[in-house]
Amino acid sequence: MKPIIGISLNSLKDISQKDVGEIGTEGQDWQLLATDYIRAVERNGAVPIIIPNLKNIEDLTQIIDKLDGIILSGGHDVNPRTYGERNSGKAGKFDNLRDACEIFITQYALEKDIPILGICRGFQILNITLGGTVHQDLKTAGYPEHSLSNSNRNEASHSIKIIENSPLFEIFNREEAWVNSYHHQGINTLGRNLKVAATSEEGLVEAVFLENKKFVLAVQWHPEMMYDNKDMNKIFEKFINSCN
Length: 244
Description:
CATH superfamily: Class I glutamine amidotransferase (GATase) domain
Keywords: Hydrolase
Protein name: Gamma-glutamyl-gamma-aminobutyrate hydrolase family protein
Strand order of the largest sheet: 4-1-5-6-13-12-11-8-9
Mean pLDDT: 91
Organism: Peptoniphilus ovalis
Oligomer: single chain
GO molecular function, one term: hydrolase activity
CATH class: Alpha Beta
Low-confidence stretches: none
Distance between the termini: 9 Å
């Protein structure tokens, strides 16, 4: 049997019918996921399942209990209230239901020792779930631009320094890699027991992990978009192998 990997979803409200390919009707809300995540899971011998954002949040346990691993996907900014901060006005749109669902999913998966791979927003959700905080806007915090939407999604934008004795070093087997970059927020204070696996050139945390778990790794970039990069695929390979 192939492992079953649950992937969290974006919630989109006030979106036009045109924006979703003229399906459905005006005024509907949507829960969507980029196909890159699904293909990355398929490519590495697992079966992807989409985890919806439920109003009855505790019902999510019935889904999670059937999963072998979880990918926390990218998307909108997390509401600063979840990490005890006032909204600075520099963050983007929020979806409070998605925030609550993903924090619940993360807490439950950690308790059950279900492997987790966090990507972009998912990297931040893991940190926030463990009591950490994020910079609401990196440029305001004095960092260079990290939301580099003028490059192709599979194109590397900047380098990262990989920390030895981390799962990422085991995967890449070197101290430097180049990654894409589509975010304007990043970790400020590190969550409980999280360890840094990689930093950007200017010292911004780019990857974190937890020890004494089957697999808990989160990255700020989008390895699923770098579909033609063998090293990035190794992240999914390592994750899915831990789910067997």
